[in-house]
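Why do we bother with a discrete structure alphabet at all? Because it lets us treat a fold like text: something you can write down, compare, and reason about line by line. To make this less abstract, here is a complete entry for Erythromycin esterase family protein. Read it the way you would read a sentence in a foreign language you are learning: slowly, and without expecting to understand everything at once.
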Amino acid sequence: MNSNDNPPEQNAYLEELNALFIPLDGMENLDRMVKAIGDADIVLLGEASHGTSDFYRVRAGLSKKLITSKGFNIIGVEGDWPSAYRVNRYVKGMEGADSSAADALGDFTRWPTWMWANTDIRDFAEWLKEYNEANHGSGSTRPKVGFYGIDMYSLWESMEAIIGYLEETHSPQLKQARRTYACFDPYSRDHQSYGIAAGLLSESCEKEVVELLQQMQSRRMAYPGSEEELNAEVNMLVTSSSEAYYRTMVRGGPQSWNIRDKHMVESLKRIMSYYGASAKAIVWEHNTHIGDARATDMMADGMVNVGQLLREDPEHRVFAIGFGTYQGEVLAGRAWGSPVEKMTVPPGQPGSWEYYMHQAGGGRNGMIMLNDASSMLHTTIGHRAIGVVYEPAHERFGNYVPSSMADRYNAFVHLDRTAALQPLPILQPFATDALFSE
């Protein structure tokens, strides 16, 4: 590009990116990212869409390096706890586990199924199982690497898991759990119906959920310190958070978003508490969750997110890495619950972060350590975000988030031309919360 094509301030922005751009050839240069992560105990790995294979592939490559070289032992994903816990059983070789990763992904039936039931996650889960078997055999005192869903859409599934656990342990809390579950029965597993009844008609199950939560928190643990106890604990947290989420979402505003992101942080902390002093977590979520909300227009709207909440916690050392692309293909739907399509991602809008990263890299993949940036990269620029509902022709009107990139992330991975995920065949997909945010 001729230097006369850009105004001086744009030339300065591009000059800064040129100086910081590190080509990403295969996975070799990811070692520089591992070094930059340093002694962080939580690494947040983002994505600009939920349907791009390259984001999953590079996040898997970086996660493997963090596991093997720095002892990371927790993978937390933007997925439902019960569905991901089936994968956790598989990668840890727990009793009753599936015989393959593809089978273990079979509970990801909630639309959008492709987010986790895809070939990239299948392959990563197989690697995790092999790693655990090779490095955490009998006699090992180190915890195996786990795979956990820290999201909270699984209201009914988590309630069923709680009842199953209480039945197995002959718990006196079983009666209250059944009463709580019965309260939700009239809504036929329809989150929107419950949200309307609870949020607009004041016909909620909040009282029953709170009573069950209090009883379970006060009871003596049946399996203290066990993973089954963690499973029951987080399923109870999911039930409480999702009831509050669906009760508030129909009213609009930031409260339901904040309930969700606060839940994801709390779920992660409980998992890390279970792992103890050795806990080191890697989180896979959309950029809108892992990039600090204070560096975007979310803050003005009263919204917080995972990245902000974890950075504000003095007990943890957090390193956040955003991911993006200039152009390519993505899996998404035209509307909530509609058939998945492979869509074309158009080139980044002129003047956007994606546009400048493409220019700086000359069309190559690369990364930038934003901790090394000058004040230039603390200015606001449009940064693309693609959701599970997407319309490429209209993206310029709502898919670019005003962001101070050096405040939003510690580093950024740019994958210039990307390909769509390859979904696995999952039976009985069904739609849920049409107000899902990204």
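What the structure line is telling us, in plain words: The radius of gyration is 22 Å. The longest strand covers residues 318-332.
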